[in-house]
Amino acid sequence: MTWWEELIEKYPILLRDEMGCPPYLEVSEGWRGILEELLPKLEEGRLLLPKDRQNCHIVQLKEKFGGLRVYLSDGNDPMDLAILEAEKKAIKTCEFCGEPGTLRNRGWWKVRCHTCQTQYEQEMKGFCHD
Ligand SMILES: [Zn+2]
After folding, report:
1. For residue 97, how far is its CA from the centre of ligand 1 (angstroms)?
2. Cα 17 to ligand 1 centre (Å)
3. Which runs of consecutive H residues, i.e. helices, occur in the chain?
4. How many Cβ atoms are within 10 Å of 30's Cβ, its own excluded?
5. Predicted local distance difference test score (pLDDT) of residue 128
6. Are the beta carbons of 55 and 48 closer than 8 angstroms?
7. pTM for this prediction
8. Which residue from 48, 51, 56, 124 has the least number of CB within 10 angstroms?
C-alpha cells in the first residue's frame, strides 16, 4: 500500500467523493509530511460542521505554480486555516524529498532543495546536449 492509499483508508470521508472516488494525488512525496499534518486538522474541522454538512471532502489536491493547492467541497474557518498553513509550509518544502526548499523557475515553477535542483539540472542537460 502506498502512503497515499494509507491516508485514504485513514480518512475515508475527507478523501472520497459522493461516488466513492478518492481525489487524484497530484503532488510528489516530499509533501507527504505536510499532508499527514493537514488531514487530522481537516478531520477535526469537518466534525465541527453541522451534521448535514459533514460529508465535506477534498475535491482536488494538487501543485499549481509550484505551490500546494487543496480544494474542499465545503468547509469552515478551522479547515481553511489548516489549508493556509499547509500551503505556507509547502512553498518552503522541497516537493521531492521534504527538505527545506525554495521556489524555482526552471522550465516551470517547483519547490526544490539544492540537491534535488542540482540533480534536476543535470538530468535536463542530459536531454539537451547534441
Ligand atoms: Zn529535495
Report:
1. 4
2. 32
3. 3-10, 32-46, 77-90, 114-128
4. 20
5. 60
6. no
7. 0.90
8. 51
Q: What is the pLDDT of the chain when averaged over all its residues?
A: 93
Distance 19 CA to ligand 1 centre (A): 35
Assigned C-alpha cell, 11: 480518512
Note the pLDDT tens digit of each residue in 35-85: 999 999 999 999 999 999 999 999 999 999 999 999 999 999 999 999 999
Rounded to the nearest angstrom, the distance between the alpha carbon of 92 and the centre of ligand 1 is 11
Chain centre distance of CA 37: 11
How far away, in angstroms, is 126 Cα from ligand 1 center? 19
Nearest to 25 by CA among 58, 62, 59: 62
CA angle at 73 for the pair 48 and 61, rounded to the nearest 5°:
110
**Distance between CA atoms of residues 51 and 36, nearest Å:** 25
* Residue 40 CA from chain centroid, whole number: 14
CA of 43 to the centre of ligand 1 (A): 29
32 C-alpha to center of ligand 1: Å?
Answer: 13
Domain boundaries of the chain, sorted by first residue: 3-128
